[in-house]
């Protein structure tokens, strides 16, 4: 066992407090990482505040992790001491089911082991629950450790481990590219990275944000259109416009209004995971053969592909770097849509 400093909540009302946690001894395939930066994803907030139910306390969130390899187990071949590496939302999966064999570990039929809040054997994590990246150190099996290419700063790379792959995977799956009209709903952490990636893929990108407040940034990220969803005219102007709409909004939305913006055979993809069920009018699917789908992060190989793509295209997250004692305040700002565009914790302050 080794010990690490971490920030944890002991209940849904917080606050975050500094704690000491244990990390397992290195197994032959394990990599020990000195965490340098950890992004704050809205999923961390949903979990820490128990908005999805099932939160296990004390909870150490954090699945946008960038750091440096400190030590490797005897059989590790993929990473070496001193390497720049990242860890995303998963730290293991069964490796044997059809989705795992297809490289879709996130859809593991036995349930992927998520980076935090997943029940595991005490030998994996003391306390029996995975603890995430708001900590100084983490131990992860080598196949779930990603290489962060030279050319992206570790601080702006950290959010790519969730926000990057979560938008990249559906954009690729639904063939966003030249000639495709893509809309991104919500320009927060996921949304702003999604705009950059969709534009780099060659798609024509439109942002659907609550207001025009962040319009200049959206155009700078690569969007060619930017509309306020508070303006009813938006829904008239953009009717039947899009091949693909990516919904990154963390709150309930009137989905019918957005389905009407899809052209024939268009797809609306749910990425945002509000706690409440959604309702739609089936007629809006039938009338233009539209699809409503969803997507969960992405597989490990695809995550590496995304990191390489982002390095090639100079894509990182736009971040506000904070110290660990500012996490509670940062959560409140994320919930108020007041983030530009991802909070990242400097792990040196933990
Ligand atoms: P975020 O930074 O808070 O961004 C969400 C954006 O949604 C906000 O910036 C805001 O954009 C918009 N929004 C928020 N409240 C709204 C409301 N009441 N009405 C309309 N728009 C609203 O969150 P995030 O980290 O990007 O995560 C977004 C969601 O994706 C969360 O639910 C998270 O749990 C989920 N998620 C899913 C996956 C997956 O694998 N599917 C992975 C990661 C995260 P504007 O200011 O531009 O309107
Ligand atoms: Zn996330």
UniProtKB/TrEMBL annotation:
Reaction equations catalysed: a primary alcohol + NADP(+) = an aldehyde + NADPH + H(+)
Cofactor requirement: Zn(2+)
InterPro entries, per database record: ADH-like_C, ADH-like_N, ADH_Zn_CS, CAD-like, ER, GroES-like_sf, NAD(P)-bd_dom_sf
Record EC number: 1.1.1.2
Matching SUPFAM superfamilies: GroES-like (SSF50129), NAD(P)-binding Rossmann-fold domains (SSF51735)
CDD domains recorded: CAD1
Enoyl reductase (ER) domain span: 14-350
Signal sequence extent: none
Entries under SMART domains matching the protein: PKS_ER
Family as reported in the entry's similarity comment: Belongs to the zinc-containing alcohol dehydrogenase family.
Protein name: alcohol dehydrogenase (NADP(+))
Organism expressing this protein natively: Nocardia jiangsuensis
